[in-house]
Structure formats: structure tokens, C-alpha cells
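Reopening this ticket.

The earlier resolution said the output was attached, but the attachment link was broken on my side. Pasting everything inline this time so it's all in one place.
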Amino acid sequence: MSHPLYPEVRPVYSANPALSPQLKQQRILVVEDEALVARDIGFQLKSLGYESVGVAASAAQAVQMVQDLAPDLVLMDIGLGGPEDGISAADTIRVRYRVPVVFLTASSAEEVVARAKLTEPFGYLLKPFSERELSTTLAMALYKHRTDTRLINTTRQLKALSRRVLEVQEQERRRVAIELHDELGQSLTAIKINLQLGARLKGQPLMDLNQENIRIVEDALQQVRRLATTLRPSMLDDLGLAAALQWVLEQSASRSGFMVKFHHVRSPTRLASDIETACFRIAQEALTNIARHAQAHQVDISLEHVNGQLVLCITDDGCGFNLEEMQARALTGTSTGILGMQERATLIGGQLTIQSTPGAGSVVQLTCPWRNHEESSP
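Inline output:
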């Protein structure tokens, strides 16, 4: 269908191969007070593979329909009937709902363009426009909005993660300080008292006192080893990732009571240090979450070399969780375990995928380039 304001629609653009299936599913709200023009725009949107969710004829109706229908984009005519124009509506939509707006107008007056710019639009189409121009503008606007949304979410995640990192650092420092004071400090104090007592008992047998000092020193050494292992297991540096994963899996199982299975491929060379550390910490975090929340009976870890990629997979048969809710809590900083694992995966050029359904367990999988110890970091 054609209209005097628009050139004739050319079918060649109705099946634009450049549009991805994701774009073709996008929902568009048309804000236009001329019914014939609005209907023509609806036909063009349909021919381009978009869904027209409705037509608003005023600024107030546009805002209400954005709230009710949650469209992916708004095509906004500036000259609307009523006390408010399309620019006012676009500003309200931007502030309240963060839905991208593309202006449609026959006006190119400088004052109109200047006002429109303040609403941070994602496009500005002058009537009459072709279907090619509409297609390109919509594709670019939706792409820019997705990019901006990812950037906003990434920024929020980084802020939450940074905040959590500082909290964890302080918690770890506090824990180490308490252990040094309460355990190692007491052992050293006991040795000091024994030495002072030995000095006062000159000329008397000190065998029992020396034996007690030796026992206290041995206990202190065990305390230091346990503290050092908690901070970073020495076997990760000495024996490699597989041995460290086996150790942390067995430690978690002994504390939580679930059954374990560990499968790994043997490699003649060690993995790069940053990859071993990232894999170990991701597995450690996943096992901690399983122990705290999953109520699992069986936990499996596999470490494989597949087509030049390292694949680490942690599977449990526990109660599972709602991943979207977990990610939402992570963005607010109340739960950052997933963010931390994702950040570690990114730092080694990998990808972390998490699958979980309430009542059906969960799967955490890390995939990253297999890089040996001798190879430099990317």
C-alpha cells in the first residue's frame, strides 16, 4: 500500500536477508495521529519482518502503551494532536522505561531538531522516507540499543563485582587476622611462657618442658600450613590443576556428604598458570554454592581437551535455581558468585555457561582455549 507521504513500497526489501531472526521478532509501537499514515507504516513494518504491537495517536496514549505493551522500539511522530508533542512523549519514555525512540517527522527545523536531540533518540527519519531507509534506521537503532543495554549491564556488574571484591578482601583479612591471633598467637605465647619457666628452673630437668614446646611448635606449623592451603593450595602450583580439583572436590564432599566423581584427561604438559588458577577458583565457587544451597547427592567434575579447547564442567543433581533471578541479584550486589566466575572466564579468553532449573540440578561449564604453561597469555 502507498500513501502520498511515502514512496511506493518495493518488494525487494520485504525479505531483507541482512536482518537476523532476532531483529525480525522485534516489537514496534507506532505513534502517529494520522490513521492512514499509521496503517501504511504498519504494512511496511510487517513487510520487513517486525511486529507492530499497536498505534498511539497522542503523547499520553503513547506513554501508556509503552507501559502496558513493553515494545522493543517506538516510532514516534513529532507533530501529535493534544497538549504534548512526540518529543515530550519520547523524553518521558526514555526516563521511565528506557525504550529506544526513532522520530518520524516532516519537520527539519533547527529548533525542532535541537529539542529532539535532548531526548537522546536512536534515529530521526524525515517524511517521506523509503522502506530501505526505515529498514536501515530500525536495524541500527535496535543494534545500538542492545549495545547500550549490554554496556549498562556490564557497568553495573563491574560495580557490583568491585564492591564484592573489596568486601571479600576485608573478610579474608579479618579471618586471617583472627586465626593468627587466636591460634598461632596462642601457640607462640605458650612457647614464650615455657621458655621463661625454663629460665627460672635452671639446673632442673627440662625434658617434659622441651617436649611440650616441640608439640606446640608442631601444632603451630600445622596451623600455618592449613592457613596457607586455605589461601591457595600448594598442590595447584606443585602438582597442577587436576590434583587440585580432586583435592577440593573431596574436601567439599567430606564436609557436605555428597558423592563425587572426577574425570580428566592426562596431559604431558602443564596448563598455563592463569588458566589453572581460573579453573580452580571457578570450580571452588561452584562447589561452595552446591554445598550451601543445592542439597545435592551427586557432584561430577570433568576436565577435557576438546578441539583445542579446555572444557571444565561441574554438574550436580541438587535442587537447582532460577538463573534469571540469580543474575538479577548479582546486578544489585547481593549475590556476586556468578559474576566472579564469569569475570575469571573472560580474563582467560573463555566463556562460562550456566544451566539450571529449579528441581533439576545445575551445570556450570567453562570453555577456553587450551594453552600450555610455555605459551604466553593472549
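Reporter confirms the inline version is readable. The radius of gyration is 32 Å. Confidence is low (pLDDT under 50) at residues 1-24.
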